[in-house]
Amino acid sequence: MLKEFRAFIARGNVLDLAVAVIIGAAFGKIVTSLTEDVLMPVIGMIFGGLDFSSYFVVLGDVPANLAGSTDYVALKKAGVPLFGYGAFITQAVNFIIVAFIIFMLVRTVNRMVTLFEKEKAKTADEPKAEPADVALLREIRDELKARPKV
Predict the structure, then answer these.
(1) Could you tell me if 94 and 35 are in contact, meaning their C-beta atoms sit under 8 angstroms apart?
(2) Is the C-alpha dihedral spanning 142, 147, 148, 150 positive or negative?
(3) pLDDT at residue 17 above 90?
(4) Which residues cross the membrane (predicted)?
């Protein structure tokens, strides 16, 4: 069983998947930073607030020590039911950014594959040059045929 497990892990597709997950996690952090640190402050400024995550509606009772608080994280940690549409919008923007980047990546790969297939078809259509030794043997044969028989 251990040998089978080692063979399973050593297969290329499992290693490729592991690499993809690790790169995906790192890419997710980059997109999160882009969204939270670059885009959402600009969007929040346009809509009148600097912190977009502070857009929420309180749906339940707020503890006395947090009364009047606009700290979404603190209220959520205290167990207050919140309708956090600002956090949802942030996640939606994250998704759109990731989807767009993946779309551009797939689009580029598809164009490269199409270009590669065109090049491959172009080279397949061209007849390959005859090797020099075959051409020489063919000339000798033709010369021998053309000689008068004795």
Answers:
(1) yes
(2) negative
(3) no
(4) 12-31, 38-62, 82-106
- Residue 49 amino acid letter: G
CB 31 within 8 A of CB 94: yes
Domain extents in the chain: 1-50
Cβ 57 vs Cβ 82: under 8 Å = yes
pLDDT above 90 covers a percentage of the chain that reads 13
Residues 6+ apart with CB under 8 A from 87: 53, 56, 72
Task: Specify the pTM.
Answer: 0.55
pLDDT over threshold 60, residue 50: no
Residues in Cβ contact with 82 at an 8 Å cutoff, skipping those fewer than 6 apart: 56, 57, 58, 59, 72, 75, 76
- Phi/psi-derived region of residue 68, left when phi > 0, alpha when psi is between -120 and 50, beta in every other case: left
Phi-psi region of 29 (alpha: psi -120 to 50; beta: other; left: phi over 0): alpha
Please count the helices (runs of H) and the strands (runs of E) in the chain: 6, 2
Between the CA atoms of 114, 119, 125 and 130, what dihedral angle is there, to the nearest 10 degrees? -150
